[in-house]
Amino acid sequence: MPAKGIFITGTDTGVGKTVAAAVIARMLRNRGMDVGVMKPVTSGCIETGGKRISEDAALLAFGAVCDPADPDIAPYLLSAPPGPVRCRRR
């Protein structure tokens, strides 16, 4: 059987993409499906014990019932949220 996946995307920060993904992951797990989650780039991480921790990745791991320390869930952790890119006119 070919692999199946769900990709969740949104157009703004704080619209609920991570929460929706965690809920869907938990619903699928509760139906006995093997679930993996990933947030390729996450920003606004906190520093604890010299390591960056993503609260979003922890929520996704909780929803999928997997190890929140798995580096494949959030491979790129940024401390500061990226700001908008502004271009100067010449």
Radius of gyration: 15 Å
The arrangement of helices and strands along the chain is HEEEHE
Major sheet summary line: 2 strands, parallel
Give the low-pLDDT segments.
none
- Oligomerization category of the chains in this entry: single chain
Estimated helix fraction: 25-40%
Placed side by side, the strands forming the largest sheet appear as 1-4
Report strand %. Answer: 5-15%
Structural class by helix and strand composition: alpha+beta
Q: Tell me how many strands there are.
A: 4
Q: Please tally the helical runs, counting DSSP H or I stretches of 4 or more residues.
A: 2
Write the layout of secondary structure elements.
Blueprint: H1 17-30, E1 41-42, E2 46-48, E3 51-53, H2 55-64, E4 76-77
Parallel strand pairs: 1-4
Antiparallel strand pairs: 2-3
What is the compact description of this entry?
This protein is 27% helix and 11% strand.
What does this structure look like?
The protein has a domain at 17-77. The N and C termini lie far apart (55 Å). The chain is of the alpha+beta class and 90 residues long. Strand 2 and strand 3 (51-53) form a beta hairpin. The longest helix has 14 residues, at 17-30. The model has no long low-confidence stretch (mean pLDDT 86). The chain is built from 2 helices and 4 strands, in the order H-E-E-E-H-E. The chain has helices at residues 17-30, 55-64; strands at 41-42, 46-48, 51-53, 76-77. It is globular, with a radius of gyration of 15 Å.
